[in-house]
Structures are given as C-alpha cells and as structure tokens.
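Reminder to self: keep the SMILES exactly as supplied, no canonicalising. Ligand is magnesium ion.
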Amino acid sequence: MTDTTDTSASAALTANGLAKRYRRGVWALRDVDLAIPPGSVTALVGPNGAGKSTLIKAWVGFERPTTGRVAVAGVDPWRDRSGALRHVGYVPQAASLYRELTVDDHLALAASLRRGFDRAHARERLEELGIPLEARADELSGGQQAQVGLAIALGTRADVLLLDEPLASLDPLARREFLHVVTDAVRTHGTTAILASHIMTDVEQACDRLIVLGGGRKLLGDSIATALAAHRIAVDGGAASGPGAEAVATFAGQAGERLTLVRLADGTVADASLRAASLEEVVLGYLASGRPGSARLAGAA
Ligand SMILES: Nc1ncnc2c1ncn2[C@@H]1O[C@H](COP(=O)(O)OP(=O)(O)OP(=O)(O)O)[C@@H](O)[C@H]1O
Ligand SMILES: [Mg+2]
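Structure tokens returned for the bound complex:
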C-alpha cells in the first residue's frame, strides 16, 4: 500500500525509492516510498532488524541512501545536513550521553550546538521529573538517562521529532506522560513525529499513522483510520479470501485460535463472517507476513 503521493510536495518527511545496503552486503531498506504529512504522529513498527533505525538515520543524515532519496521539510539531509538538522529533534535508540558530564552540562552543550535551544524548558521538564541537574549521566538510571535525551529533543523545539524507541526504558506513567507531551506539540505547533516502538499501547495512545517495515520493505504505510477500514479478521480458517479480499497472513490469537488478517480492496464489501481488526491485529498480521514462510501460511488460510 502506498501513501498518496500528491501530498509529497508539502510532506514533512519523504523517502523516494529509498534503499540502503550496508558494507557487509545487508539490504537494510529496499524500495521504500513514504510521504508523511506535517502535524502527524507516525508509528514505525517492525521486527528486530526490519530497518526502522536505518530509516530514521537516513532522515537524520547519518546513513547515506544506497539508492533513492530522503528529505526533511523538503531538504535532503545528505546534501544539506545542517539545513535538514535545523528541523530535527532526534532521540537515538541507544542513550548517547557523556558519562562524565552532568545533566546541566548536557543542556549547555545542546544550547551551544543548537540555535534557539530552549534550555529553561528542558531544565523545567527534568526538574519536574525529579532528575537532579547536577547529577552526572552515569549516576542516572536507564530511564532517567532516556528522559534527559527526550528533554533535549523537546528543548530543540524542532518541527520534526524522530524518536527511535525512546520509551522502552520508561515506566508506564512516564511513557504515557511523554506521549501526551508529543501529541500536545503536534496539536499546538503542528510538529511531525515518528515514533519507532514495539509497544502497541503507545502506538494506540499517540499515533494517527502507521508504517510497518519487514525485511527492509514497507509492508504498510497509511493513516490508522484507513488501515483499520481496509482490514478484517477471519477466525479459524473463515472466508479469508474472495473477490476484493486478500489474506495477508495468519497468526495466533490470544486464546490460540487461528486469526487471518484480510485486506480489502477499495470499495469491497466485507464477507459477513469477517470481523473488524484491532490495530494490534493489523500490526501482528503484517509482522507475520514478513516472516519467512508466511506466504505459504497466507495461501493456506
Ligand atoms: N552499521 C551497520 N552495518 C551493517 N549492518 C547494519 C548496520 N546497522 C544495521 N545493520 C543491519 O541492517 C538491518 C536493519 O537494522 P536496523 O537497526 O535498521 O533495524 P531495526 O528495525 O531498527 O531493529 P531493532 O528493532 O532491533 O532496533 C539489520 O539486518 C542490521 O543487522
Ligand atoms: Mg532499531
């Protein structure tokens, strides 16, 4: 499924024919086309090694596309790194603090590197979270270190936030609160956010768009409303295919039942035996479709 390309001129983030092959020959991304509208929060999901971090790093200008192009607010980060980075707040997957610097040193560093960095805002946020500004990074817990990275990204007041599994080490309340901060920024400032995550409750709380990557390919890229409207679930071998309906993959339900995710072509009326799919089921179906041998499974359903 393809994002509508007529939005690409005004898109906050784009990828066109993007492929990335690392030196050891691994194709981390293949044929990826995306056009992400401003003022949206997009979940980026996919199994380990699917290419999520590589895609984010291409937008940050840390990884050069092997073929194709990416752009942030219309700027190609490989041609104009600083021009693209002006738009970006980035939280890498692994916390990247300097062990011997204090929290406040990190804020000072961010302020020196980034014009317009809102140090007072970052300080206030960390104080509210009870994180001492004079603590050295290596004295903080994993979750506290992650919060420092998030506070710095938010302090940039960037119009594009690229968040690579930023919430994995946060407690549930801190996760929920951070997602509220992101969705508020989207509502009030038209910020665009990408959130790589394996945690479906986070995706459901905060995101209005969904990209599923598998084996470096885009398996799904759409608004969540469109994705939900276009999919149904067949239970235990029900009518998973028919005119305008195509089985995506079969996976186990919570009680061990066999669920098949069914994709409906535009305008298809779903067979009455099919039920609505939850967002988690749409994601599980595409994750299953990306597994080796899934074509056989889908074909058998
Ligand atoms: N620097 C690198 N050199 C060589 N191969 C790499 C490099 N970085 C990533 N890869 C490979 O590219 C593929 C995609 O990796 P990537 O880190 O983008 O996946 P991911 O979806 O972010 O996974 P995870 O959920 O584990 O974070 C993997 O096969 C990985 O081994
Ligand atoms: Mg990753």
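Points to follow up:
The longest strand covers residues 27-36.
The pocket of adenosine-5'-triphosphate (ligand 1) is lined by residues 22, 24, 26, 28, 46, 48-54, 93 (CB under 6 Å).
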